[in-house]
């Protein structure tokens, strides 16, 4: 199963042609698209996308780059939304949450408070989490060891091999996408080639992190088959093996991913 484990399909960049974007992805062989929210303002939007498209699954969370504009009460709003969503077979977990130590000017104390609060919700409901770990792997690992959620995905992973092993040991898969398609991205290509394949899932992070052939253009989930081909080449394995194994990994860390779709929805 070819799974895009991270795609912001609700983003404004798709307002003009969102349905066509999904149709192109499905026509290219993408079977699941996971859409994480970034704030309370889009909880309903990501759920609606899953209700509209049979291939879409969603997660609920507050992105670390959005906590400065979030209200303190949004953590309780999230908890209520999660409680309401747990019976929805299209709901896969908590995300996108985490820490960002790359963008200057973010309030790290507030970011960490929201991260810890959301991890507590994940633990309360026994749900996996989709993590944002940009330049913050060790700080994220610290909280994971302390609170022990059931696992999930470290999205857009670009840490060390040792950090990769630590995330895997805590039940997390590592997301690789467009960044590994650039020949000069030596570190991330080495990681994609070397980490245990049981720890890898594929993603686009569309509309962001476009692959090399779409540099400075809008990314789409329909680029995932070519991204998967790059991953297969880096590993030296057949494409069908790369797709099968990363898809199985995604279903393992997001158990609701393969829930049967309801009828009457588009692709």
Mean pLDDT rating: 96
Q: What would CATH call the homologous superfamily?
A: Metal-dependent hydrolases
* C-alpha termini separation: 15 Å
Low-confidence stretches: none
Q: Report the C-alpha radius of gyration, rounded.
A: 17 Å
- Going by CATH, the architecture would be Alpha-Beta Barrel
Description:
- This protein has 267 residues and is an alpha/beta fold.
- It has a single domain, classed as Alpha-Beta Barrel (TIM Barrel).
- The protein has 9 helices and 8 strands.
- Strands 1-2-3-4-5-6-7-8 form an 8-stranded parallel sheet.
- Helix 1 (18-27) links the parallel strand 1 and strand 2 (32-36).
- Helix 3 (74-85) runs parallel beside helix 4 and helix 8 packs across helix 9.
- The mean pLDDT is 96.
Short overview:
With 267 residues, the chain is α/β, with parallel strands linked by helices. It has one domain: TIM Barrel (Alpha-Beta Barrel).
């Amino acid at each position: 199963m070819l799974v895009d484990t991270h795609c912001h399909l609700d983003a404004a960049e798709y307002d003009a042609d969102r349905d066509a974007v999904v149709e192109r992805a499905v026509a290219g062989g993408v079977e699941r698209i996971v859409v994480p929210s970034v704030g309370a303002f889009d909880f309903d939007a990501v759920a609606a996308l899953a209700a509209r498209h049979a291939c879409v699954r969603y997660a609920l969370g507050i992105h670390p780059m959005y906590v400065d504009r979030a209200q303190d009460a949004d953590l309780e709003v999230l908890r209520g939304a999660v409680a309401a969503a747990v019976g929805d077979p299209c709901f896969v977990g908590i995300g996108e949450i985490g820490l960002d130590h790359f963008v200057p000017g973010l309030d790290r104390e507030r970011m960490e408070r929201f991260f810890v609060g959301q991890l507590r919700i994940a633990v309360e409901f026994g749900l996996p989490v989709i993590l944002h770990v940009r330049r913050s792997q060790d700080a994220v690992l610290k909280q994971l060891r302390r609170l022990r959620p059931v696992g999930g995905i470290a999205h857009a992973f670009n840490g060390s091999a040792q950090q990769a092993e630590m995330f895997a040991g805590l039940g997390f898969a590592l997301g690789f996408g467009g960044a590994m398609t650039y020949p000069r991205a030596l570190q991330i290509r080495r990681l994609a080639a070397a980490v245990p394949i049981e720890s890898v899932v594929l993603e686009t992070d569309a509309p962001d992190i476009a692959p090399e052939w779409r540099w400075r253009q809008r990314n789409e989930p329909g680029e995932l088959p070519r991204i998967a081909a790059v991953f297969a080449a880096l590993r030296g394995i057949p494409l069908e093996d790369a797709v099968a194994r990363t898809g199985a990994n995604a279903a393992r860390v997001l158990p609701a991913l393969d829930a049967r779709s309801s009828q009457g929805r588009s692709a």
